[in-house]
Design goal:
By secondary structure, the chain is an alpha/beta fold. The protein contains 16 helices and 17 strands.
Length: 380
């Protein structure tokens, strides 16, 4: 199994909490960007040993990509890799971009899963986050998508400044009423360098306290379970069989190729590489050289993971999942000594009912998932 990720580096406006690499859509040269994508994929096609089983177009805001350029992108990909149909083809969209014309284009060229950035259904909270849509538009977009695509994922956020348990409950219930196949419900994180982090540091906004945060977390888990969703990762819940295959592949260490400025790749073994977060440099590199020149030059950095780094990554990524870390596989890769050391480090958390060992798997409990960020460093 392998994946193809394409990074669209443009947004209408920057959300206050976002630290992804993006720029304003006013500077977008869509034709040039798509051509650069195709040129990069052409010179990297040997890295894809098999046709990708998943395609994920993320960003940024992929739904800003005009239909004609989306068509050219997909046709270009298939001209390089040959005709194929990905098992899962996801595009991230913002509600304000959804139209029947775009939905028809996405469907025509193979999209079978859409991830919608709703975040909250409370207009005051949407404004505070810097989102471009309101709750009415979010609901309309999700309903329009659901009539045409049966695999819709909705992003929902808790821990927003000023958010109450009741306002979060209304958003959660509103999202459930839209009957998505998948919900990603995650807590707001204050990332370094974002506008929201600066506002918080200057005491201009305050986050919900710890007690309220845990109530929101508990409400999420219990409400989604009651609605028939299965939790399969820290922040991800789905109806049976509707897990994100692309993300599961990532958490299990399968290879993927990332195309675009700021995109990351992994060979499934020990090599990670990434393109600089430099749109101007990316376009200049991939548009100003012919393919022979491109094959002999590079616009990326890479690292070869040490055995210790691979061990740490396996612990961190597998424990994100409900299934957890396969201890037999861990032992086969890193030896019995590494396994015993891990179990020794895990013992206090098992005793505290934050981790559990079941057969040959080590995994977080429901309570453990809530504080996983504080436990993982102790295990690696």
């Amino acid at each position: 199994m392998s994946g193809l990720y394409i990074h669209i580096p443009f947004c209408r406006q920057k959300c206050l909490y976002c630290d992804f690499y993006t720029g304003g859509v006013r500077i977008a040269d869509w034709t040039g960007l798509v051509k650069a994508f195709i040129n990069e994929l052409t010179v990297r096609s040997e890295e894809i040993s098999e046709r990708p089983s998943t395609i994920y177009i993320g960003g940024g805001t992929p739904s800003l990509l005009p239909s004609s350029d989306f068509k050219n992108l997909i046709e270009g990909i298939k001209s390089i890799l040959g005709p194929f149909k990905a098992e899962e083809f996801t595009i991230e969209v913002n509600p304000e971009d959804v139209s029947m014309e775009k939905i028809e284009t996405w469907l025509e060229f193979g999209v079978n899963r859409v991830s919608v950035g709703v975040q909250t259904l409370q207009d005051r909270e949407l404004k505070l986050l810097g989102r471009s849509h309101d709750s009415k538009k979010a609901i309309e977009a999700c309903r329009m998508l659901a009539k045409n695509i049966d695999n819709i994922s909705i992003d929902l956020m808790f821990g927003i400044p000023g958010q109450t348990l009741e306002s979060y409950r209304r958003s959660l219930e509103g999202v459930l009423n839209l009957s998505p196949a998948h919900i990603s419900s995650y807590a707001l994180m204050l990332e370094e360098g974002t506008a929201m982090t600066i506002l918080h540091r200057e005491n201009r906004i305050s986050l919900p306290d710890e007690d309220l945060w845990f109530k929101m977390y508990d409400l999420t888990v219990s409400s989604l379970e009651e609605a028939g969703f299965e939790r399969y990762e820290i922040s991800n819940y789905c109806k049976p069989g509707r897990e994100s295959r692309h993300n599961i592949s990532y958490w299990h260490g399968h290879p993927y190729v990332g195309i675009g400025p700021g995109a990351h790749s992994y060979d499934g073994k020990s090599v990670r590489r990434w393109n600089p977060c430099d749109l101007k440099g990316y376009l200049n590199h991939f548009l100003s050289k012919d393919l022979e020149e491109l094959s002999q030059s590079k616009f990326y950095s890479q690292e070869v993971l040490s055995l210790e780094e691979m061990r740490e990554e396996m612990v961190m990524t597998r424990l994100r999942t409900v299934e957890g870390l396969n201890l037999k596989e861990f032992k086969d890769r890193f030896g019995n000594k590494a396994k015993e050391k891990l179990l020794q480090e895990a013992r206090p958390f098992i005793k505290a009912d934050l981790l559990q060992k079941f057969d040959d798997f080590l995994s977080f409990t429901r309570s453990g998932f809530a504080v996983s960020d504080s436990i993982l460093p102790a295990l690696i």
